[in-house]
Write a structure and sequence with these properties.
This protein is α+β, with helices and mostly antiparallel strands. It has one domain. The protein is about 25% helix and about 30% strand. It has 4 helices and 7 strands. Strands 1, 2, 3, 4, 5, 6 and 7 form a 7-stranded antiparallel β-sheet that branches. A hairpin with an 8-residue loop joins strand 4 and strand 5. The relative contact order is 0.18.
Length: about 140
Amino acid sequence: MLSRRVWDSFRLQAGSLVLLDTRDLAETPVARAPSFLIGTATKTEMRVELAIYRLDFSDEPDLINVDVYDVWEQLPTRIDVPSMIVAASTCANPNFQSYLDHHVFLVKKTPGFGHHRADLPGEILVRLRHISVDAV
């Protein structure tokens, strides 16, 4: 989960990739040191995703693991919110609605093809080089 304020600060545009560091993701445990390398957020017309690139020395020779999360900016219609409310012993009051309005939800996908990598994707490397050149 991530606060909507933080999520909105990434200013995602459809078709763009945003690089994220530990400061951007400080609210969530997905960016834990020391294994965290970098995060990316992408948005298409159909979905919003967060990818976390992290080191895992037990996966040699492909030391980089990629954990991908669907980002729910709103609860999907397939979620039975009334049943969830009953199970949580709460009610659909303004506090509950405020909670939904002020958070996005991260749903980890099952690791699949591309989970283990030998290096970071080229697009990320190019952007990192660009950032380091601009910082000089």
